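Components:
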Amino acid sequence: QVQLQESGPGLVKPSQTLSLTCTVSGGSINSADYYWSWIRQHPGKGLEWIGYMYYSGATYYNPSLRSRAMISLDTSKNQFSLKLKSVTAADTAVYFCARGLVVVRVIDVWGQGTTVTVSS
Amino acid sequence: DIQMTQSPSSLSASAGDRVTITCRASQNIDSYLHWFQQKPGRAPKLLIYSTSRLQSEVPSRFSGSGSGTDFTLTISDLQPEDFATYYCQQTYTVPRTFGQGTKVEIK
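Structure:
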C-alpha cells in the first residue's frame, strides 16, 4: 500500500524559501496514472490547494501564490518536492503531500502533514 | 476561480441520525466533485469521488449525489467515529478549490 511522508524544516525565516520533500513508498511516482500534489491548511482553517505535477512534467499552481511555488519530481529517489519562495507569516500552515488519480482527478492518498512555521 | 460553498458550516447531531451536507459550486463542475473527512490532527481521507462513487473501504452509510453545481453528502445512521469535518473539492478546473468545511459535532 502506497504511503507518503513529508519532511523538511519546521521553522523558516520570513523572506526565505520553504522547502519540503514527500517520500513515496509502496509505489512508484514514475507512472502516468497519478499526479503529485501539495495542499496546505492554515491553523484552524480549511484546505488550500497549492498545486500538482504530472509524471510528464506538466505543473499547475494556485494563482493566489503569485508564482512563488514550484513542484518537482525526483524519480531516482521516488520523491517530489515543494519550494515556496519569499515566505511570510501567512505561509505558516500544515503542509500535506498527496497522490491523485489521473483518470478521476481525485486525491486518494495523503501524507500525514508537516507543520511549517514562518517566524524570525 | 470556482467558489465552493458548503452548508451548513457546522451542525450538531446524535448517533443514529441522518445528516446531509450541501456543496454548491459557483459554476458547472460536471461530476468532478469529491468529499473528504478530516479528524483533528489528521490528514483528510477520501470518502466519495466523482460525486457518488464510494471510495474503497468507506462504509456504505456515506453517499453522495448531485450534478452541475449542487451536490450533497449524506451520512445515514451517524456513528461516533463520523464526528469530524467534511470538505468538498472540485477538480473540474484549476485552481482545484475546496469548500470551507462542515464540522459535524455531537449533540
